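Quick note —
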Amino acid sequence: MNLFKKYKKKISNIIILVFIIFIISIRLTRKKSNEKEAQNLLKYFEICNNGLLINKMKVRKNKNPLVSIIISTYNRENTILRLLRSIQNQNFKNMEILFIDDFSTDFTLNKIKELQKNEDRILLIKNKRNKGTLISRNIGIMKSKGDYILIPDSDDIFSKDIIKNCYKISKKYNIEIIRYNAYENNSNFQNQLISKLPKNKIIYQPELSTFMFYGFGTLQITDFTLWNKFMKREALIRALNNIDLFYLNQYMIIKEDQMINYAIYRNSKSLYILENFGYYYIFNKRTSSYIHVDKKERIRFTFLYINFIIENSKNTKKEKDMALFIYRRYNKNENILKSIDINCNLYKKVIYFFLNYSYITLKEKKEFQNTMKLKKENKLYNITIQKY
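Predicted structure written out below.
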């Protein structure tokens, strides 16, 4: 007994050291595995980029596809083929591929029509004018028949097994949204491998409502894209129905992915964080549909986004902080308050919301008061504003 007491501290230190070594070895093994997976994805990208089919067997259209892939295209004649090849090379075949061409002016349409000759699963929808990515995608979603939906960008690729893996996981655990890892060609390689998000874990409500902003534990945007998700159609439709589609269709042509992602996180029942690489994202400054947006419109879109968070929140501090975070994030670049119309109900509603929030800074409070031409420092600003 005395001997045990004598060496108790040393034994404890050895156990701690062994545990640390064990954790480090697991991380190193995972890192090597991720590096290998990413390298395989890069090789696979070259196969698809060269227009090669791994399985050349013609696949017939299924009247009741399990998966729908929605692709909005605008002037992508040089890249559309590699995305399609990555879809055709999938180990999962029961799907439909919906191309919504947003009034392309190059040979994108011809390329898709040529692909249709040997691919019965392709449905081509042509916009008669340029409508933007959001509306084009919504058209595809409404036309789709699959139980699950993927929405890739038109110049990227899927990894070979991702749809099959996501489908299995969704059916096994009854998951509505699966988020998979992605390799981005414009980012540091190591940073892409070391993800702060939980690995192969299911996130449920109510944590899921704020997970888009608090996934890393601290307030920041952890997800603002649709191309990294395998979604149940009913969950995506539920999220879209939560958005005022009139304003989205009329105005929202930037930040739309962020708003839809927030709606998905808030309205879905479950999210699965998949560690595997499922996607290769090609950074391109030009979006799928090019529409010029001036500064006033960008600010309006930002306020629409903030107001959407306010209207859908349960009034918790986390959610109020999320709305304030979005304002601060974009105010750095846009100097928002100097460019708004204070008579617009949308701007009034958001500003009065912030004025009633005790966590804004004194500087922000004065800026909001000056914008609304208010003088009383301690005034409560609770008012009823009609819907803008």
